[in-house]
Amino acid sequence: MVRALEVYFLTGRPLTDHFAETRAPMPDVAFTALAVRLPSAAISERVTRRVDEQFERGLLDEIRGLLARGIPESARPFGGLVYRQALEHLRGVRDEASTRALIAQENRRYARRQVIWFRKEPGVTWFDGPGESAATIASVLDFLATRRDDI
What we know:
Layout: H1 2-11, H2 15-21, E1 33-37, H3 40-56, H4 59-68, H5 83-90, H6 96-119, E2 124-128, H7 134-147
Parallel strand pairs: 1-2
Helix pairs in contact: 3-6, 4-5, 5-6
């Protein structure tokens, strides 16, 4: 929504007008939109693991370093998911375990909104399973082999 408002105030036209004028960079190339679908429990586990990995790789030290270099807490990236909650932790708002749990919870909500949004996209072919799974890859390749004449 913020981006749509920025575009409107900068150009005087709604974002949908710009989309209507958008041309494919390679108009004579056909494409097929594919997506993978995971069960909610799998998404939740992956999100939690990712948050833990971010902390283990030094998220808090990264933020401390940015602040030490003079980046203000009001900088736009500090308002986004993960950084906002981690910065609050560094200010003493909550302990690290609670911060990790909150980040994971908010990222799960964000992932859920993305799935809902992508489900509405026309022409997307969905595959069940993780994208790195041999079975999912085989399903995609089989699908593409049957479509080779269509594209």
